[in-house]
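Re: the request from the purification team.
They wanted to know what the chain is likely to look like in 3D before they choose a buffer screen. I agreed to run a prediction and write the result into the notebook, where they can find it.
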Amino acid sequence: MNKRTIVLTTEQYKEIIQTMREGFCGCRPNERIATALVLEGNLGLRISDILSLRLSDIVRDGDRYRLEITEQKTKKKRVFTVPLVIQQYIENYCLRNGIEKNEKIFDLTERAISKQLALVCDYLGFEGIGTHSFRKWYATEIYKNNGYDITLVQRLLQHSSAAITQRYIGIEPQRIEEAIEGHAQLL
């Protein structure tokens, strides 16, 4: 678990991706890195797993697409549905960039992505954000948009306990603050 990185807000996510795509004075646009971060934020995979992806890893399964990988960090096997919009996004990116079905989608290193992300975050004035912030954002959004189901997020991230998942997405401090605020009983 990467405790040094914070969870992105949706606004930060959008601003980082847009700035990465457009560039700014002293920093050229970088569609490849923006796309890798979009996939991390929308598939919930670690950046190391995003960098090993091939278009052929996403398999049509009836009327849906699925991705079957072995996570590099944990060596756990993971199979999950890839939303059609994400599959099309990846396929279009590969077509635009002449990436063959069995080639790695990204010819990048984690270090290159981290350096570019740091430049963009410095420019935007964001602190505590690293590549892992995109996975944490994914987890937090899934949690909020699915009835605050921590078990669902735990299973998606393949954490060994709900307590780890709560710490991972920073739910505990948030819940404590809400409980304190909600208890005010002035007479």
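For the purification team: Residues 10-131 form a domain with the Topoisomerase I; Chain A, domain 3 fold (CATH 3.90.15.10).
Please add any questions underneath this entry.
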